[in-house]
Amino acid sequence: MLAGIRKELLYFLRSRNALLLIFLVPLLTVAILGNVFNEKSASGISIGICADENSSIGRAYYTSLSKGPFLVKFSSSLACPDEGAKDLASGLLSAVIIVPEGIEERISEGAGEKVRILYDNSKEDVSGIVLAYSSGITREISENISQSFISGAWEGLGKIGIELEIADLELIQARGRLSGLLEKISEAKRKLGNATVGEMQGKVAEMEGFLESQRLSLIAANSTAQGISEKISSANRTLWESMALLEDADLLLEEDINGSKEILRAILPFKEFFSPKNPACLAITCPNISFGEEIVSPLEERVEREEEMRGKISRISDNLTVLGSDLANASAQGKDAQEGIEDALRKLSSAKEALLEMKGALSLFSEERENALTELSEAESLFRNTQGEIEKIFPKLSDAKGTIGRISEREPETVISPLGLEKSEVFGSRGFSYVFPAIVALVLMFNIMLISANSILFERKAGTLLRASLSGKGATSLLAPKLAVFGFLGLVQTVIMAVFGALFFSLEIRNLPAFLAIALACSFVFSLFGIVIGFLSNDESSALLSVVGFSIPSLFLSGGLTSFEFLPEGLKAVSTRLPLAVFSGALRTAGVYGAFPTPPEILVFATILGTAIIFLFGRRVEI
Amino acid sequence: MAEKGAVLSARGISKSFGKRRILSDLSLSIRSGEIVGIIGPSGGGKSTLVRVLLGIISPDSGTVERKGKIGYVPQADSFYPYMTVKENLEYFSALYGKRPDKELFGLDPEKISGKMSGGQKKKLSILVGLSGEERLLILDEPTVGLDPISKGEILDLFRALRKRGKSLLIVTHHLNEAEDFDKVSILLNGKLAVPESPKRLMKKHGEKNLEGVFLKIARRN
Fold this sequence. Notes:
Mean pLDDT of chain B: 88
Largest sheet of chain B: 6 strands, mixed
Structural class of chain B: alpha/beta
Distance between the termini of chain A: 35 Å
Strand order of the largest sheet of chain B: 5-6-7-3-8-9
Strand order of the largest sheet of chain A: 2-1-3-4-5
Largest sheet of chain A: 5 strands, mixed
Distance between the termini of chain B: 31 Å
Order of helices and strands of chain A: HHEHEHEHEHHHHHEHHHHHHHH
Helix content of chain B: 25-40%
Helix content of chain A: over 70%
Oligomer: heterodimer
Radius of gyration of chain A: 73 Å
Strand content of chain B: 25-35%
Number of strands of chain A: 5
Low-confidence stretches of chain A: 619-623
Order of helices and strands of chain B: EEEHEEHHEHEHEEHH
Radius of gyration of chain B: 17 Å
Shape of chain A: rod-shaped
Shape of chain B: globular
Number of helices of chain B: 7
């Protein structure tokens, strides 16, 4: 028994690799897990906030979360929710807080609003912290909003009280002004009565004009009558003078006629003598004229004419007498008319005086009307001012009403808790689709690495690799088929697991080609690690221990048992770059979200592959 | 300058690992169709010598001249046990771009190699070493672990190969077997004696077998 124990112990004691692994693995494990579990607080939990640039709620989340163990990324991009969900799916973020646009306005309008949080519950320790912080911050913001609302409400009510007092005073003043206005209107109405002053004044003016025109006509008529009277008098005088002259002329004519007649009677006897036909006359040298014709006849004709003239004068005298009589009548009538006109003028004067009195009264009335109008205008102005004052009161009353409405119509719940947190679990803690990528990476790590290590170890021990290398083939030619086969084996294993998972656990792989490509790359990388272990190990035991020694820390540090966020910073930097972590993340990105791994992950693959290739193919293959 | 007719000629080979001198100014020449045995104690530098001769490691000093390819048959069964005889031979021949020799020396081509007897496995291992039509084959303890019948078969195979013009350098500590070799050289403390025929060695040292010769030389050193 003792010999058996000794034999087993000697194996480990004489194998430096085994010895190293036996002591190193537990030491590493304790060191890592001690670090992990001794570290009480998390750090560097990535959270995205999608909110409007000016969103006070979004900023409040940002400020509060930044004080916690979070790496907070704030984005106001419209695509933020989608990109955030994508980053959440690919493991870049642990949660995304989505603050809806215009949330502050809706809350201020009395609506109860919710901020949405998408979180990855596959890491319950991380999601627990995220939810605890987010809920606390939401509650704090909500309380601040409530406090702000209640303060605002109190302030609003205070303002309303003041406004109402002012409105009350203004209404009292307006009421007083309206009373005065009514009085003024009544007075003006009284003054104005039903009079149509303008019309009356028009008619008075018209009458005045008419009277004036009548007066002027009468004056003119009077003047005419006076003129006529004077002219009649003058005509009468002229008539009498004419009649006197006619009498004188008649007398003269009569004397003349009488004288002529005496002449005629005196000369008539000579008439026959002094006729040219009388030869006696001619013998005593009678004038060469016809006495009869040239002296008696004209004289007779003259007497005749003067007799005729006297007859005419007599007729004229008669006519003048008639005319004189007419003129006397006319003069008498003219005097009557003149007297009538004068009487009319006197009456007209009286009417005018009455009219003037009326006009004076009307002027007075008009003045009073003007005063009344002025007062009415003043009343109108006062009315308008008062109306304006009253109009000013209405918005104040409306505001007051609105404020009261906003306060009274609010649901008590929205006042107490205006902001809530809507939790959307993106990955459940038991979501097989989520853990499947990690399972694949884990299986590939163990299987492919172990197979590769054993394969190399066998070849080294059997010498087949050395024999093959004697053919002149380089290490690349000899090892590339192994990589190809192990990669293919990894792919087959992945497909088997995927089919089984899909059949029995409702597994969903959203981007199968990408998932298989990453699984292939994962197989290549772990195959390379296995080959390195195969070259470094002396026997199967040490190879197995090496694989286990590589895998256990990977398992602990790759986010499977403990989230990265709970690791110390230095360890976190290493663990996130471990192949298992990188490939789990990459497979998750492809399988769960359907995306292809992000460039940094690809860079890590390249680094791992490059390092392995340099190590492996740069050295000479030895037995 | 290589010895005339030699497929391998090593001169003045020295090799040290750290301060420990493994090979010290040794020379060796193997001609075509010749079976040369190198005998020596374990840890005597046999494996290092083989590696130097194969060209896997370089000597600190001295030269190795090879004419044609050199095959190597390790002590372990050096083939893939999950493959048939034919598959193994095809694989190794393919590395050289050749087709496998049809002469299988009694091996069943379709037999899974891992399921064969020890002698057959060794035979296959030797045939694998000749997949590139090598003129010289270096064998490391080819008969270790074999039963007498199997040993006999392997020795018969050596002879058959010699007839075909193949040269064999056999590293062994089975001194009795080496008595059938054309030449034998003893590697002791990193130094290699000039190969001589076993009979001549035995006669030279007045011993009846090589074991006696070896013990005599070993005691002397």
